[in-house]
């Protein structure tokens, strides 16, 4: 290989597992903008290729993104894709309760075997690796807001356990790979994040309530709606992930990434009604088993170590998300009319 060839291949390469999902697609876009060659790997169980459409369009993406359909529970060798990775992101796992509970055994396998396969790949490639962990590792928290030092209160047997315990065990695998093999790991505990590119049938609260509001359909409130969450706009989250990846190798996390502004589900619904001008009414549905009562991140560690905090206020983020869903609804209605 001559010097020019070598230079051509010297661009930084990122592998994003779960790259066609909601967060994964935003991250791929950011990595391409930052000059990476990106491989997006996804089984497409909840992800969609349309999320990556503009990056897969050669004219715009300039061949900077390749898509590989693959289930991370199956071993793989990145060399078989004629590629290498300098940086690996593990986002592969359905995040919405209805989707991860639909195939709970596969969810657990995805968390464990996916993490193991990606850690082995990072080890072989000498790559830095990111784990998308979750606020769910805190379960039904007994302290508030949640700090990273809090060890959580998680059911091992309930319907959320496949995800919560899977993610807890994945964190353990990451730290053992660092201790045993010296792999450079970065673990973020992500709190509820929302934005464009969520599926309209994703099942999570922000997408459900926005789509229902735009259709003037009843908006589903589970339980009394007094349970709280803290919602982070996706651009803020992606900035946090990139900041984390740039920290010195001695900083591994786990670090909370989320918006510390806590709201009840009812307050969220009221904001969405106000912002959409919807005529929807609220309907009560049973609260799902083990639904956490309160959740809010303490982000002091992220502020101190990453110099990061969310910038997008909830109303602004909701406006952008509503505008995106409104466009999807308009194209859907146009297709129905044709
Ligand atoms: P998502 O469901 O939109 O994306 C997950 C992606 O992973 C999808 O594209 C899906 O097809 C893919 N996937 C699932 N199982 C796979 C498998 N076995 N092999 C290959 N691909 C597989 O969810 P998201 O919101 O984009 O979440 C991305 C990651 O971030 C997940 O790991 C999730 O646990 C984590 N996370 C997200 C949030 C949030 O609020 N969005 C909060 C905490 C953690
Ligand atoms: N929720 C709701 N209506 C919906 C979907 C969800 O009231 O249509 C509630 C759900 O019970 C939970 C909160 O909203 O208390 C957040 O749910 P989501 O599935 O978005 O995320 P998670 O429970 O994983 O934090």
TrEMBL record:
Q: In terms of domain of life, where is this protein from?
A: Bacteria
Instruction: Show which residues constitute the signal peptide.
Output: none
Per UniProt, the keywords (alphabetical) are: Decarboxylase, Lyase, NAD
Q: Name one Pfam family in it.
A: Epimerase
Q: Which cofactor does it need?
A: NAD(+)
Stretches assigned to the NAD-dependent epimerase/dehydratase domain: 14-251
This protein's name? SDR family oxidoreductase
